[in-house]
Amino acid sequence: MTKDIRVRFAPSPTGSLHIGGARTALFNWLFARHHGGSLILRIDDTDLARSTEESTRGILSALRWLGLDWDEGPDAGGSYGPYFQSQRLELYTKIAQELVDQGRAYYCYCTPEELAERRKQAMAEGKAPRYDGRCRELTSQERIQKENEGHRPAIRLRIPDAGETVVQDFFRGDVVFANDVLDDFIIIKSNGMPTYNFACVVDDAKMQISHILRAEEHLSNTPRQILIYQALGYPLPIFAHVPMILAPDRSKLSKRHGATSVEEFRDMGYLPEALINYLALLGWSPEGEEEILSLPELVRQFTLERVGKTAAVYDVKKLTWMNGHYLNERDLDDVIELVMPYFQEKNLIPQQLNDEEMAYFRQVVDAVRTRVKTLAEVADASEYFYIDDFSYDEKGVRKHFRKENSVEYLKKAAEKLAALQNFDLETTERAYRELSEELGVKAGKIIHPTRLALSGRTMGPGLFDIMVILGKDKTLQRLDRAVQYIENLT
């Protein structure tokens, strides 16, 4: 590979950045960075009815959040702009007209209704519903007559009636398509807009794209694109179609399988480094068995040779596990900043915290983050540090509060804690160990109902961490509240 490598990511701004699109962007980015090449970001927005500025902003924001930059494109500039297809329409029209002048393309005046009727008839006769080429050899007089009748022509590419078009795919080798099933396809619609395949080829060629690394679903477009390259006399890039991402049930990934866009994962409290790490492993294998890989390490290792040839299966559980790892490894100050909006959304903390409130907040976050997997879960798992009138977990009540002697244990625990001069991790834990020996029971018999009394939950940070963060007074108040609750159960 040389430094002349130029790859592109060309999303259509008709919605959010999907997981599949994010992986395509990442693979292109890693490939470019590994080989010292360039990544071009192009916005394929010729579908004017569905493309929106909001989607464009969302895609750019999602890419930046993931930590992916681009060497040319919106906000970066470059020598091959503009980088919005909607701003390149004159170029497409000019090149299409050149093809017409050379006899490689022609005007087609067939209306959508006529084409639909012919497709219907062909299918009824058991034939492939392909364009019959009736506008191929129209005379100038016939064309003038059509235009006088108000017909606005599309432009079709004239392709060979026989033979084959071979796609040389990096992963699959030669994939052969018969020309007689491709027919003379449209490159400029009757409204003057280019078709996807035509605009894509023109831009990829003009932007000197060397490798087209994209999703497998685009493989069916590639023979038509190759025919356009050949008609224009452009050199072919290297095509590499990455296998699909499938849902756990091996069906096509969709919203019914949960979050599928980068924005959704961001809002749910996933970290960009976790999502990047996970996406890289969807269809690509690292050198060793280690799966936690930093972005620089991914760049170092990434090659197309290590991309698999079979579909990757999406597993949100693995992503969540990976996110928990990164959440625990992140600098606490970073986590504090990232998690604050989730606490504020739940009205647990004010918009501005004073020094005392911030110190308490830091303790809470540091204790909780090692037990959860996402930023949103940090806030969810911290509610009892800010709310006193929480409810008790029903299963926990049956298991710990309804047991014989639970009230006695909590009262004895409260007496022990009330007598402490220091209220830190060491003294609180020692008090519980002493109480366990005095009562002749395992420490868990006291610890479990105490945890439920202080938090309403059966899981969470260490019990003595919870006590120290809450402080002596609040700990005793909650033990007393739990005693009253249990006594009212009977």
TrEMBL record:
<dbReference type="InterPro" id="IPR008925">
    <property type="entry name" value="aa_tRNA-synth_I_cd-bd_sf"/>
</dbReference>
<dbReference type="InterPro" id="IPR000924">
    <property type="entry name" value="Glu/Gln-tRNA-synth"/>
</dbReference>
<keyword id="KW-0030">Aminoacyl-tRNA synthetase</keyword>
<feature type="domain" description="Glutamyl/glutaminyl-tRNA synthetase class Ib catalytic">
    <location>
        <begin position="5"/>
        <end position="321"/>
    </location>
</feature>
<keyword id="KW-0067">ATP-binding</keyword>
<dbReference type="InterPro" id="IPR020752">
    <property type="entry name" value="Glu-tRNA-synth_I_codon-bd_sub1"/>
</dbReference>
<comment type="subunit">
    <text>Monomer.</text>
</comment>
<keyword id="KW-0862">Zinc</keyword>
<dbReference type="GO" id="GO:0004818">
    <property type="term" value="F:glutamate-tRNA ligase activity"/>
</dbReference>
<dbReference type="GO" id="GO:0005829">
    <property type="term" value="C:cytosol"/>
</dbReference>
<dbReference type="GO" id="GO:0006424">
    <property type="term" value="P:glutamyl-tRNA aminoacylation"/>
</dbReference>
<keyword id="KW-0547">Nucleotide-binding</keyword>
<dbReference type="InterPro" id="IPR020751">
    <property type="entry name" value="aa-tRNA-synth_I_codon-bd_sub2"/>
</dbReference>
<dbReference type="Pfam" id="PF00749">
    <property type="entry name" value="tRNA-synt_1c"/>
</dbReference>
<dbReference type="InterPro" id="IPR033910">
    <property type="entry name" value="GluRS_core"/>
</dbReference>
<dbReference type="GO" id="GO:0005524">
    <property type="term" value="F:ATP binding"/>
</dbReference>
<feature type="binding site">
    <location>
        <position position="108"/>
    </location>
    <ligand>
        <name>Zn(2+)</name>
    </ligand>
</feature>
<feature type="binding site">
    <location>
        <position position="137"/>
    </location>
    <ligand>
        <name>Zn(2+)</name>
    </ligand>
</feature>
<dbReference type="InterPro" id="IPR049940">
    <property type="entry name" value="GluQ/Sye"/>
</dbReference>
<dbReference type="InterPro" id="IPR004527">
    <property type="entry name" value="Glu-tRNA-ligase_bac/mito"/>
</dbReference>
<feature type="domain" description="Aminoacyl-tRNA synthetase class I anticodon-binding">
    <location>
        <begin position="335"/>
        <end position="482"/>
    </location>
</feature>
<dbReference type="InterPro" id="IPR045462">
    <property type="entry name" value="aa-tRNA-synth_I_cd-bd"/>
</dbReference>
<dbReference type="Pfam" id="PF19269">
    <property type="entry name" value="Anticodon_2"/>
</dbReference>
<dbReference type="GO" id="GO:0008270">
    <property type="term" value="F:zinc ion binding"/>
</dbReference>
<comment type="function">
    <text>Catalyzes the attachment of glutamate to tRNA(Glu) in a two-step reaction: glutamate is first activated by ATP to form Glu-AMP and then transferred to the acceptor end of tRNA(Glu).</text>
</comment>
<keyword id="KW-0648">Protein biosynthesis</keyword>
<feature type="short sequence motif" description="'HIGH' region">
    <location>
        <begin position="11"/>
        <end position="21"/>
    </location>
</feature>
<keyword id="KW-0479">Metal-binding</keyword>
<comment type="similarity">
    <text>Belongs to the class-I aminoacyl-tRNA synthetase family. Glutamate--tRNA ligase type 1 subfamily.</text>
</comment>
<feature type="binding site">
    <location>
        <position position="255"/>
    </location>
    <ligand>
        <name>ATP</name>
    </ligand>
</feature>
<dbReference type="InterPro" id="IPR001412">
    <property type="entry name" value="aa-tRNA-synth_I_CS"/>
</dbReference>
<protein>
    <recommendedName>
        <fullName>Glutamate--tRNA ligase</fullName>
        <ecNumber>6.1.1.17</ecNumber>
    </recommendedName>
</protein>
<keyword id="KW-0963">Cytoplasm</keyword>
<feature type="binding site">
    <location>
        <position position="110"/>
    </location>
    <ligand>
        <name>Zn(2+)</name>
    </ligand>
</feature>
<feature type="binding site">
    <location>
        <position position="135"/>
    </location>
    <ligand>
        <name>Zn(2+)</name>
    </ligand>
</feature>
<dbReference type="InterPro" id="IPR014729">
    <property type="entry name" value="Rossmann-like_a/b/a_fold"/>
</dbReference>
<dbReference type="GO" id="GO:0000049">
    <property type="term" value="F:tRNA binding"/>
</dbReference>
<feature type="short sequence motif" description="'KMSKS' region">
    <location>
        <begin position="252"/>
        <end position="256"/>
    </location>
</feature>
<keyword id="KW-0436">Ligase</keyword>
<dbReference type="InterPro" id="IPR020058">
    <property type="entry name" value="Glu/Gln-tRNA-synth_Ib_cat-dom"/>
</dbReference>
